[in-house]
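[job 0412] stage=complex_fold ligand=PMV status=START
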Amino acid sequence: MKRRVGTGAAPGKVILFGEHAVVYGRPAIAAALGTGLGATVEADATGPVLRIPAWGRGGQQVRLESAGGSFESISRAFAVALTQVGLISAEARQVAVTVDGGIPPGVGLGSSAAFSVAVLRALFDYAGHPASPQTVLAAAMEMERVFHGTPSGLDHTIVTHGGCARFQRGQAPTFESTFESLPVGRPLTLVVSWSPRELTTRGVVARLRERRERYPLPFERLFDAIGEVTREGQVALSNGDLEQLGLLFDHNHGLLSALGVSTLANEQLVSLSRRGGAYGAKLTGAGGGGAVLALMPEERCSSLVSTFEREGFKAFATTIEATP
Ligand code: PMV
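[job 0412] stage=complex_fold status=DONE, emitting structure tokens
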């Protein structure tokens, strides 16, 4: 018996260490944000309809195969979600899904993963099928493939489990990823700032893949170095050593610049962060524009947020709580 309303939610995320290298089998560390997306599903005879008012998509009727422009991957991912939940027939698809919340789209804060997991949870709830985390993870991976091409799986895994965790993509022969919750010795106060992206995650990852295929050795060396920074970051995180974490943020950012994924805008955000008193700063997510993280002494956060706003950027302060 179907329920009339289904609901689901999922947080956004920040990658603290290891983006890009994680696609090539090195470890990464990410943390769920305190803010995210919520989804509500209701019966609607005109469905399937997807509404994302916060992203400027009032009540667009999703045409599953033919939506154009920037809506295309969202609507294709939505179609995948309906299928994954078993809503196959035209009648079963008579639903309206509304997504709302505080994650800006496409800047590296896990918007596509939060969208995927929140929508899946709401659809499973609506359909009256209890879904295990493994079921949600497998279905979200299919949606993330639509958004990102060859995702490592880090984003939707952290967004499904929450907390702060280390993720390593599975390698041959089993391809089983590992995911381990990590202790955080001291709360981390972060200022997250962003500029619009010049390329999508899919585009940045694809460009890096091409360059790495042409010049495997220098890129493998950079991935190894990022892996090493991530391992040291895990220790500093557990010890609550903010100074060392800041230094490692800076090193990780330098290595990401060397990979070629940082833009002028990313560099400007990193530099404003450092001048604003950060222990350290790095881009987070795919780069090509998008978000930058500054690890901050708490008392300097609000002045840094004001600086970003004065310079025409968006920013907010957030805390990753300590966990045993
Ligand atoms: O920018 P985001 O939030 O889509 O994160 C991408 C992270 C990468 O490591 C660059 C890609 C991946 O699949 O892990």
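The first helix runs from residue 71 to 84.
[job 0412] exit 0
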